Amino acid sequence: MKKLVLPLILVLAACTSAPELQKYPRTEINRPYTLPEHVAAWITPIPFGIFSDGSRTITIPPIPIPLFWKVGLSDTWTLNFSPLPLGLSHQLYQSDTQLLGVSFGTGGGYSSGSGVVFAPYGSLLWRQLLTPTLALEVSPSVNFRLPTRAAAQWSAGVSAGPLVQLSETFAARVKAALSLEENYSPSFTEVGIVNTTTSPTPELTLALSASFTWSIHRQWDFDASYTYLGIGQGPLDAHVGMLQFAHYW
Known about the structure:
Layout: H1 5-15, E1 40-52, E2 57-60, E3 68-72, E4 77-81, E5 86-94, E6 98-111, E7 115-131, E8 134-147, E9 153-165, E10 170-183, E11 185-189, E12 192-198, E13 203-217, E14 220-231, E15 237-248
Antiparallel strand pairs: 1-2, 1-3, 1-15, 3-4, 4-5, 5-6, 6-7, 7-8, 8-9, 9-10, 10-13, 11-12, 13-14, 14-15
């Protein structure tokens, strides 16, 4: 009986997919930056990892987070929400050999130590096809973390690497991401926070990652990735994994 569950789910989902989904290629290298109009996606990431600073080690178990959604507002605009972060993706250009897109928005949250946290972000993606199965991807990005009760932080960087289409349904990526991070320490007075900074501490870091994407079905994708963080991170040594399922309809 259990063997019939997944095929039954796929059959039922296929019956409810939008006709526009047929325009969305299964080959990762040919996909546009945004979803087709009227197409939606439900994304469930499963992060896990091991972090060590030399004195202690923290393990994050794999826990699904089924809270991420995307909706194609048009063929070149996609709404991203979870409900937070809330953002937009816009495809600026696509040809047979090039693609350019931009994403921007903000996240947020609250904790007793940091207070209300705003996290605006922005990123670009440029993809250049070198052959029908090989492309180069370059993605600059900037991120901010603006808490009301703690130091503000920002980071800016760029990632780059090849995308290889191994078959119609399998693709693989290898990337190196170089980033500059700076922490700000606000000054406090009896009446609140003074909008000045003290002792900025810029850090140059390098992350290495590898991932693959499997188009299980026109309505189902599976992604798996591994990232190593430890170059330029001081005593931090981190191995981060991510499994991700995406359902399109």
